[in-house]
Amino acid sequence: MFALIAALAACHAVHSLSFLPLPFLRVRGAPFVTTFTGAPTVPIHRLVTAPNKGKEHTTPLVLLHLVPEEQQQSSVLPNESDMGLPSSPGWKKGRLDELTDWAVNDRANRPIICEYESNGLWLWTRWKGTVLSMIAVPVLLSMLVGFGVDVAAHSYSEYSWSVLAIPPTDDPLVVSLQGLNSLWEYQFTLCSLVLTFFTAEAYKHWRSVYYTTGAIQGRINDICLLVTIGSQRNNPASQELVVCCTRLLKTSHTFFWAATLTHSDGVGDRRNNEAKLGKNAIGPLLLSPEGLKGLVQAGELTMEEADSLLNSGLPPSQYTYIL
Predict the structure, then answer these.
(1) Angstrom distances, CA of residue 233 to CA of 26, 88, 226, 236
(2) Kind plus residue range of the DSSP H or E element containing 66
(3) Of 58, 52, 54, 53, which Cα lies nearest the Cα of 79?
(4) Residue 12 pLDDT > 70, yes or no?
(5) What are the phi and psi torsion angles at 182 (to 5°)?
(6) Hey, what's the signal peptide range on this chain (predicted)?
(7) What is the pLDDT of residue 307?
């Protein structure tokens, strides 16, 4: 009984682990909010809102707008129930300043790719973020349940046997538990299969993200090298070309991750966020027509570039390659 419940708990934990957001999918200021790096000279007070079934709600798409001083007092306030939530980070006291600093910072808030540590002893001494930390409570509860079943079997059985001995097969109570034993054997085989499968899939996903990030970095380096070779110093046209290519590279990189499925909303990177984001995820909003208009206002896209993306007839996931 104990072995069955413990195996199921471990299987469920690894299954859930394979879908958790990996720590190298997000970096500080990237991939979404780095596009809003304009240099405003007046205070920023308002977040963009998008319609939702006739109602207006604050979205986590942090498109910062310049609010004229005469309109600052009439800014739309959020619902009190939404204050401090990941979907409205700018409304928490002091959060807007922190978010702005995070958006324009070019340093990562966590390792992009976690460093590999080959020391097995070091790995066994870790606790936070491991499978053991996720299944510790369920396993302890399973042990208590199994211990309770064992005590009940010894108490109500007509026979007595030691803890490590095999129960007598002719005991009526033991015979009534044969169905549970058969169920355990089936579940043991299924649990082993699922556990092995999802562990392999989680590793495969890690490898794919690892190689993807490396490939993106390599292509960006190639483009930067070509731009550097073709540019001249003290030449206004060359300087304009370098600035334009830098802007398009950054936006293209942002669009690539915006089109990638993730559990993170792009803002709450300091903690795992498994909420059902739906339309409130920054990625889909950033690739929407409203998001492109916000990028135009932030100076990360020109009006011609935004119109070209919208009129291309391609899905938003292809915007990164168009740029």
Answers:
(1) 35, 45, 15, 8
(2) strand 64-66
(3) 58
(4) no
(5) -65, -40
(6) 1-16
(7) 92
The pLDDT tens digits for 116-170 are 667 778 878 888 878 888 889 998 998 898 888 888 888 888 888 887 888 888 8
DSSP 27: B
CA dihedral 175, 181, 183, 186 (to 10 degrees): -140
CB of 105 closer than 8 Å to CB of 28:
yes
As beta bridge partners, residue 190 has none
| pLDDT per position as a tens digit, 244-267 | 998 899 888 888 888 876 654 444
- What the block records as the tokens of 167 is 């129960």
Angle formed at CA 104 by CA 100 and CA 109, multiple of 5 degrees? 90
pLDDT tens readout for residues 21-77: 333 333 333 333 333 333 333 333 333 333 333 443 333 333 333 334 444 343 344
DSSP state letter for 113: S
CB distance 49 to 57 below 8 Å: yes
**Residue environment code for 230-240, b if the CB has 16+ CB neighbours within 10 A, otherwise e:** eeeeeeeeeee
Count the residues in the chain: 323
Alpha-carbon gap, residue 96 to 100, rounded angstroms: 6
Question: Looking at beta carbons, which pairs linking 6-10 to residues 24 or more positions away fall under 8 Å?
Answer: 6/139, 6/142, 6/143, 6/146, 7/187, 7/188, 7/191, 7/192, 7/195, 8/187, 8/191, 9/135, 9/138, 9/139, 9/142, 10/131, 10/135, 10/139, 10/191, 10/195
Considering Cα of 158, then 160, then 161, then 163, what sign does the dihedral take? positive
* Burial label, 283 (beta-carbon count in 10 A; 0-12, 13-18, 19+): buried
Query: How high is the pLDDT of residue 300?
Result: 85
